[in-house]
Amino acid sequence: MHDFVSNFWPWYIFILVAGSMIWLFYLVFSQSHGVKDKSHKIEPTGHKWDEDLEELNTPLPRWWLQLFIATNVFGALYLLLYPGIGVYGGLLDWRSADFLGEGKTGQYETEMSTADTKYGALYDKYLQQDINALTSDKDALVTGSRLFSTYCIQCHGSDAGGGPGFPNLRDTAWQWGGEPDIIKQTISGGRLGAMPAWGPVLGDSVGDVAAYVMSLSGKQSEGNLDVGKEKFTQLCV
Questions:
Q1: Residues 162, 169: contact at Cβ < 8 Å?
Q2: Tens of pLDDT, residues 134-144
Q3: Domain ranges (residues) in the chain
C-alpha cells in the first residue's frame, strides 16, 4: 500500500520519469548513429552572438558521449532494481524496514536501536539513581559534561554562562525553577522561549523591569528596583 493520496500521482511520476529516460536514450542514439561523412569538416553553422562569436558543427568528444550513455544506463538500472518510480518497488524488493525487520521503519529506528545496545546499560545505571546522588558520581559528571559539550554549548556557552539571547545557567536565577526534577523536565521537554514585545504594555517602566532582571544575576543598572519587581511579578512571572 502506497502513501499517495490518489492513483494519479504514481502514474504521473511513472510517465514523467520513464518518458524522460526513453527520450534521452532516443536523443543520444539518434544523434550518434547516423551515417558518418568521412569528408566532414568543422564549419560554422551560421549562428552568431556578439558579432564574432560563432557556433561550429564540432561533434561531441567520444568520451563525453559514452559518459552520458553510462549515466542513463545507471539511472535505468537503479530504477529497475530499487523503488523510485511511483509505487513500483523494484526487482530487489528493497525496503528501509528490512534493516530492523517487519514492523520497523526508517533509519532513525535503526540508529536508536544501535545506540540503545551500545549505551543502554550505562544510562540504565544512572536512571536508577537519584539526581542528587549523581552530583557526587565522578563518572556521571564526566558523561554529563560531554553531553553538555555536544548538545548545549551552542546556546548556553562552553562555560554555561549563556550566549547572546540565551539564559545564564551559572547564576541563582531560574526562569522555570532550579529544582533537579524541574531541570530534568526542562532538558527532556524543552521550554517555549519566545516572548512577545512588552514595550507597549510596560511603557516608561521598561527600564525599571530591566534593572530588576539584571539585579537577579548580580548586575547593576539605573532604575527603580521596587517598581521593576512589582511589574515583573504582575506581568512576567
A1: yes
A2: 888 898 899 88
A3: 1-32+59-94, 96-128, 199-235
